[in-house]
Design brief:
The protein is mostly helical. It is about 70% helix and about 0% strand.
Length: about 160
């Protein structure tokens, strides 16, 4: 999806990611990255991975903002619940990418292109995520969403008006 400067938030089209498609695309790109024999192929795989991440993150952010604006909207409540479950699953793919990035024989060449900060981010990310905690992260997301909905539904009567 191309976003122009003139697009308003309301005009952004939302489409739920198909997780089977996302998973397959990430797995293929990660395989391409890991088996690359040259820097060009490594960079192409990275571009693909970044594109998949951008599409996923864009969909999440649109759904999140629209849900936050009106937590009573049943459609975006369902989308929020979807992302509560899928964000930790997607984090696993990001973790796999970061591990492959740290293990690549093209590390020095990639440092020259992308800088050392990318590798620092990868190292720190791997310290904070393990597949074993996916269910805990999903529960944390559900609880955070429930709290957000509770706060958004609060009403206060003041001077004869409800706020």
């Amino acid at each position: 999806m191309e976003i122009t400067q003139t697009a308003t938030f309301a005009e952004l089209r939302y489409e739920r990611p198909v997780m089977e498609t996302v998973a397959k695309a990430m797995e293929q790109a990660l395989e391409q990255f890991a088996s690359a024999q040259d820097l060009t192929t490594v960079q192409e795989a990275m571009d693909t991975i970044y594109g998949i991440r951008a599409d996923f993150d864009r969909a999440y952010n649109i759904a999140y903002v629209r849900h936050s604006c009106d937590t009573r909207d049943a459609f975006y409540e369902a989308e929020n619940a979807f992302f509560d479950e899928q964000l930790p699953v997607f984090a696993q793919y990001k973790s796999q990418f970061y591990q492959a990035l740290l293990d690549t024989p093209f590390r020095e060449e990639l440092v020259n292109v992308h800088g050392r900060q990318l590798f620092a981010i990868a190292e720190l990310s791997l310290r904070t995520f393990r597949p074993e905690i996916i269910e805990d992260l999903q529960e944390e997301n559900r609880l955070a969403s429930a709290y957000t909905k509770l706060k958004a539904g609060a009403q206060i009567d003041l001077r004869g008006e409800t706020y």
